[in-house]
Design brief:
Elements: H1 2-12, E1 18-23, E2 28-33, H2 36-54, H3 74-77, H4 79-86, E3 103-107, E4 113-117, E5 120-124, E6 131-134, E7 138-144, E8 148-149, H5 151-160, E9 163-167, E10 173-177, H6 184-194, H7 197-237, H8 244-262, H9 269-286, H10 312-335, H11 353-376, E11 386-389, E12 392-395, H12 397-411, E13 414-416, E14 423-425, H13 426-439
Parallel strand pairs: 3-7, 4-8, 7-9
Antiparallel strand pairs: 1-2, 4-5, 5-6, 9-10, 11-12, 13-14
This protein binds iron/sulfur cluster.
Length: 454
């Protein structure tokens, strides 16, 4: 109110003695006198705001936490998480936005046209009635294969903050159209943080440990189930010997533990890459042992292969990683960081290094576990869902549709964040993790890379 009075004084050139504000709910009128002290306070506040505008650093979070509950900036500012960083006993309440229930539209059928009509996205599939979806109900538009999108629809998606992503017919993430640029200030902070080799190495150590611990925990879970199954088999057949698969799993789990101990001491990104390769080899070598004996023989695989995938399991993993890369890119663009500059992956391929970095955290919970569960539940039709061409295996259109549904359902499941202690969907976790990464160079770090499968 003081600022308004000063503005009026300056605009009208007349002295103003007081301002009044009426609280209708309480039927109270408050008089705010304007004197020289008040004018000085306003000048000081304006000067402070000017200085903040020049700065690329955000001011620290307020000591008065009651202000944050209603502050529109809390999803960006993450004040509760910042307090947790400085006080390990702090129990953050969730100020992060509600789970996003807007649709992610996957256009899988080649020859489909996506356009705009009024405030709606219209989708014209061959031989099907026209579908229209209000733009406010759409979060992302994912165009697979050779579906078409009109310039008008692209402009509209840009205006509405709807991410448009492109996936090739072979299931490779191609890129995104997104007009959300983020602020240059936060990108300058990101550039300067990632120009520091020690910062990159520390973050990369955490990332590699996070992914490998998740992989190891997943193998341990499978190993527990396997032991339970073997016990039943032993009881049935009086077979006292352990299964070969169980031995391989146990060995991989203990070897991964040994390598994981070396990760925090890695002196360079190169040695970290070596440890990561070692851990991945151990993991993928043992992963086939988690496949249920009741799963079809065609779904069994023997280690990781890609470009092109040579078996159905790797085909599912590859498509899942492409969808995950798309979602991580969407989260980075939503937050406003620069995807082309990462702290671990180097810009070698067309994929954005920061997106490749961040997707490491989610590979196991969002893709590996999802694929394994679907295979063990016999959700795949080995003929209709796949397109086998010699040594290459691709998902058919029905297979892609099924995968998209399974994957999107998984993203809606909730997970209690181990560091912040509150639950949110994987879909929201993707964005939260990008925001926690940003906090690493804002003096409020330490929470990034803690998402480890239990
Ligand atoms: S959420 Fe951030 S900007 Fe808003 S009142 Fe709290 S500390 Fe200040």
């Amino acid at each position: 109110i003081l600022a308004y009075c000063c503005l009026l004084e300056s605009a009208l050139g007349i002295p103003i003695k007081e301002g009044r504000i009426r609280y209708h709910a309480d039927n109270v009128m408050v008089h705010v006198p304007l004197d020289d002290t008040g004018r000085a306070m306003v000048r000081e506040a304006v000067e402070k705001a000017r200085q903040l505008r020049q700065s690329i650093h955000r001011p620290p979070v307020t000591d008065n936490e009651r202000l944050c509950a209603r502050c529109s900036l809390s999803p960006v500012c993450l004040p509760e998480e910042a307090r947790l960083v400085h006080d390990k006993e702090w129990q953050p309440i969730r100020l992060f936005p509600e789970d996003d229930d807007r649709q992610i539209i996957h256009v899988l059928e080649p020859g489909t046209s996506v356009g705009r009509t009024g405030e709606q996205i219209k989708i014209a599939r061959r031989h099907q009635p026209l579908e229209t979806v209000p733009a406010r109900q759409v979060a992302q538009l994912v165009l697979h294969s050779f579906s078409q999108v009109s310039t008008q629809a692209l402009h509209f998606c840009g205006e509405q903050g709807i991410g448009v992503h492109f996936i090739s017919g072979g299931g490779r993430y191609l890129g995104s159209f997104d007009s959300r640029q983020g602020s240059i200030q936060r990108r300058i902070c990101q550039y300067s943080a990632f120009a520091d080799g020690d910062t990159c190495l520390e973050l990369a150590r955490r990332l590699v440990a996070c992914r490998a611990q998740g992989q190891r925990k997943f193998l341990m879970r499978g190993s527990g189930k396997l032991r339970a199954r073997d016990t039943r088999v032993e009881q049935t057949f009086q077979d006292k010997g352990k299964s070969k698969g169980s031995e391989r799993l146990t060995k991989a789990i203990s070897q991964m533990k040994a390598v994981l101990k070396l990760v925090p001491q890695a002196k360079s990104l190169e040695s970290l890459l070596g440890y990561e390769g070692n851990l991945a080899a151990l993991y993928f070598d043992a992963l086939p042992d988690l496949i249920s004996p009741d799963a079809p023989q065609e779904m069994v695989f023997d280690g990781r292969n890609r470009r092109p995938p040579k078996d159905r399991f790797n085909c599912l993993l590859g498509f899942g990683y492409a969808l995950l890369l798309k979602d991580v890119m969407n989260a980075i663009l939503t937050v406003g960081l620069e995807p082309a500059l990462g702290f671990y992956h180097q810009p070698r391929s067309q994929a954005a290094p920061l997106a490749l970095d961040l997707m490491e955290i989610f590979r196991v919970p969002l893709v590996d576990m999802t694929v394994m569960a679907s295979v063990n539940r016999n959700q795949w039709d080995v003929r209709d869902d796949f397109d086998v061409r010699g040594q290459q295996v691709w998902l058919s259109e029905t297979g892609k549709r099924k995968f998209v549904e399974i994957y999107e359902n998984r993203k809606q499941e909730t997970w209690k964040h181990p560091a912040t202690g509150y639950s949110l969907t994987y879909r929201r976790l993707l964005e939260l993790e990008v925001r926690l990464l940003e906090k690493e160079w804002m003096g409020e770090g330490g929470l990034f890379g803690q998402l480890i499968v239990r």
